[in-house]
Automatic annotation (TrEMBL):
Region (Disordered): 1-22
Active site: 459 (nucleophile)
A GO biological-process term: methylation
The family this protein is said to belong to: Belongs to the class I-like SAM-binding methyltransferase superfamily. RsmB/NOP family.
Annotated positions binding S-adenosyl-L-methionine: 303-309, 346, 384, 406
SAM-dependent MTase RsmB/NOP-type domain segment(s): 181-520
Gene3D superfamilies: NusB-like, Sun protein, domain 3, Vaccinia Virus protein VP39
Keywords of this entry: Methyltransferase, RNA-binding, S-adenosyl-L-methionine, Transferase
Organism classification: Bacteria, Pseudomonadati, Pseudomonadota, Gammaproteobacteria, Moraxellales
Name listed for the protein in its UniProt record: rRNA methyltransferase
Protein's organism: Psychrobacter alimentarius
One term of GO molecular function: methyltransferase activity
Amino acid sequence: MRNTSSTSKNNAPRNNKLKPSSNLIMNGSVRVRVIRTLLAIQNGQSLSSVLDPLLNSLHDGDKGFAHALLLTTLRQWHALARLLDTLADNPIDEVEVRTTIQVGLVQLLYLEVADHAAIHETVEAVKEIEFAHASGLVNAILRKVAKNPSKFRKKCDKKHSLPNWLAYQLKQDWSEQYDELTQGLRQAAPMFLRVNTAIGSVEDYQHTLDGAEIDADLVELTSGIHLPNASATTLSTTGLRLHQSTAVNALPHFAEGVASVQDLHAQLAAPIINTALMAKLSAESSDANDDEKSDELHILDACAAPGGKLAHWLELISSNESSLFHVKQNDESVSMVSKVKLTAIDNEAPRIERIHTNLQRLNLSQHDLQQAEKNIELNIVCADATTWQGAGKKKSKLVFDAILLDSPCTATGVIRRHPDISILRTEEDIEQTALLQADILHNLWPQLKVGGYLLYVTCSILKQENVDQMQDFMTYYTNVAAIEFSDDCNWGIAQTIGRQCLPIDGTSGDGFYYALLQKTSE
Ligand SMILES: C[S@@+](CC[C@H](N)C(=O)[O-])C[C@H]1O[C@@H](n2cnc3c(N)ncnc32)[C@H](O)[C@@H]1O
């Protein structure tokens, strides 16, 4: 699996007559289009690849309903499927008919569509997709539910809405948090913004949003990291949580790069590694003679696309406050590094294109950085992190002062935003993904300089990809120290190595895992 939801196999039935979205014909009623979209997802298409074609095929007035119908059906998918099995006298095998009924159930149970409209339009939809023989069945089931929606809603809400294998694994990993976690995963996630602090402050942008009648709260994440030979070094990052999801083109100055949409917990990566690097530089600058000081800092973003964390890091480096070019020493700002070389790799060319587009919007492309005389050299390369060598022709493999490994993962921590994951992922994906992560780690670790940091990040909530992966890694290598986060962190749950955020609280961020490692010797 290479990213959140685009390339996985799926275990959904494949006997539908309707073909996936490459030749998905977007015509018919809104419900028919949503049903076809859901069939395409069950056939292996990701939500992100089919959502825009669906919405673009509709009149503006229908887009909101279609979006809510599709996303809510996906979020409640497995619970609806279980409910459906209790509603029919005989098993319903046809995936088109099951999908249509699930779309009907969502209207009755979650979207408060008037009964007559929900039932009539859904029965018409099943005829339109050429399964008219099931119209009586669809009608009967939906009428039964419409007689007592609160009873059926209760039944549907009772358990999780996940495939059983995933629910089972979460019970193993998070027995204490299991109920809250599985319920949290079937809710919509809040929308968070990251403000480009190289341009302006978070508070100022909140004020600007206020002027545009967009309500947002400041949310600060704070933490300490226990670096060797130093007392806990504190770090913090502040995001904005919108009260209501808003289209990006409605956000003031979005096109000019003032803000980006980024989950709150994803906003931890750049500050963690930047803080560790600044502390390291600060310690080195007080120890070393002038001629021993390193002049260039070489940083790798190993799985960089579409560039969210890379852009955040560039924003931090280019803003005066958190710059790596000037480190604090005895409360004085000391010039340390004259150049930062940032290499970003990803193995998917189309996703690399998205890095370029995103950086251009944020005025952080190599061209912009040069124009602004930032002394940052940015190289973006399409390469496989399991084999790529950053040393090129250099003799020594030890190239990087810091590596951000935002690893490919099962993305189980972002199911709220990508509910198609619960249809597309299979149990086998966990093992395969963990192997890929280990391959990447083994290829990159030898390329980290002694004293350098590697920040391992996933948006998974499965221990096999996170703390267990780190434990295996630390058993294999003897030259690694796990840096501890302080106990007063206001995010995540302490693990034996690293911290795990769980998407439990409806106002908080996604299920990210963070572990900061330092290389202790060659
Ligand atoms: C979690 S996403 C990275 C998100 C990115 N860091 C950000 O903040 O926007 C993981 C990325 O790993 C990439 N990837 C998967 N396998 C890879 C490999 N073997 N080598 C390099 N990149 C890989 C995927 O294409 C995907 O873009």
